[in-house]
Structures are given as structure tokens and as C-alpha cells.
């Protein structure tokens, strides 16, 4: 999951995206001070170690 946090004047807004591509496209259009963050959950399947 990807998040964009926007700080504009007295407001803080957060936007959530499923893919990096979506987030980066929106990031270009959003005005204000912004931060793009990837949220990683430790129970995501791609983080599990293989026992092979």
C-alpha cells in the first residue's frame, strides 16, 4: 500500500493507493507539502521466508 500525506496550511490529508504507479501519478498533481510513503505490513505474504 502507498500513502501520500499532504500538509497544506492548517490541514493534513492522507490518500491511500494500491500501487506505486497510481501513487506517483497522483503525487505529481497534488499541491502542497507532500510525502510519498510505502506502507509495509509484516504479515504480507511476500515478506514470509521460504522453508525450502
- In percent, how helical is the residue content? 10-25%
pLDDT < 50 runs, ≥5 residues: none
Order of helices and strands: EEHE
Count of extended strands: 3
Structural class: alpha+beta
Largest sheet: spatial strand order: 2-1-3
Number of helices: 1
State Rg: 14 Å
Compute the separation of the termini in Å: 28 Å
Mean pLDDT: 86
How would you explain this protein's 3D organization?
The protein has one helix at about 20-30; strands spanning about 1-10, 10-15, 35-40. The mean pLDDT is about 85. Strand 1 and strand 2 form a beta hairpin. The protein is built from one helix and three strands; from the N terminus they run E-E-H-E. The protein is about 20% helix and about 40% strand. It starts with a strand and ends in a 14-residue tail after the last strand. It is α+β, with helices and mostly antiparallel strands and about 50 residues long. It has a three-stranded antiparallel β-sheet with strand order 2-1-3.
Quick structural gist:
This protein is an alpha+beta fold and 52 residues long.
Key words describing this protein structure:
single chain, 52 residues, alpha+beta, three-stranded antiparallel β-sheet, 3 strands, elongated
Topology:
Blueprint: E1 2-8, E2 11-17, H1 20-29, E3 33-38
Antiparallel strand pairs: 1-2, 1-3
Amino acid at each position: 500500500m502507498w500513502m501520500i500525506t499532504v500538509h497544506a496550511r492548517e490541514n493534513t490529508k492522507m490518500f491511500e493507493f494500491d500501487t506505486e504507479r497510481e501513487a506517483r501519478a497522483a503525487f505529481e498533481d497534488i499541491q502542497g507539502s507532500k510525502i510519498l510513503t510505502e506502507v509495509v505490513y509484516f504479515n504480507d505474504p511476500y515478506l514470509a521466508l521460504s522453508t525450502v
